[in-house]
Request: fold
Amino acid sequence: MIVNLLVDGVGRIDALVRVGSGKKNLKSIIQPFQPLIFQFNSKSDTSDSSLKFITQIEPAAPALPLTSTSLYSAMYLNELLVRVLDSGQHAEGLFIHYHRCIMSLASEFSSEHLRYFEMELLAELGALPSLDYDTQGEKIEPVMSYRIIADEGFLPVAQQASTHITHSKQLLSGEMLINLKAKTLTPENLVQAKGLMRLLLSPLLGTKPLLSRKLFIKK
Reply:
């Protein structure tokens, strides 16, 4: 069985686990959102050199209790990681942000935790524009409005010009950008923050839709 693992201080690792006879309880251990302690051999007996072979594995703690929207959100995080992180790709600081997000979801669902993780993921991959300074080199101001410019950052929009933009989704408030960076999003910020994260993640995800998003539609 091949498993996808997010490893503290490392990043994504894909590994082969043997779950044959005598290991009946192993499948119950290797489950999503189950913290694990494991050892692996860097030499694989497959043609895929990036695939590791796990030699020992055990639970590090009880599986996290996730239900309803929190479970769907956690499944979204996992699918997101598999889609944007290649096997063997280093993302040393990502595990702690993932763990904090999952712990928060297990305690109580709140969509801002998803936005904070998406932000940290983008930062880890070098795909997050500066949330401190705009494209002119000026500090992001809470009273200003901005537009995202691909590969550049946030362009300040003059107040007169912003009144002529009919689609409010094109504009981002400086307050939201500042609160996103500080991880203090307010309920009023959430729609803009979600739209921004989806826009920034889109080039990494490609055209194939995320299956986990359908869970929210069906709910």
Remarks:
- The first helix runs from residue 26 to 29.
- Confidence is low (pLDDT under 50) at residues 162-166.
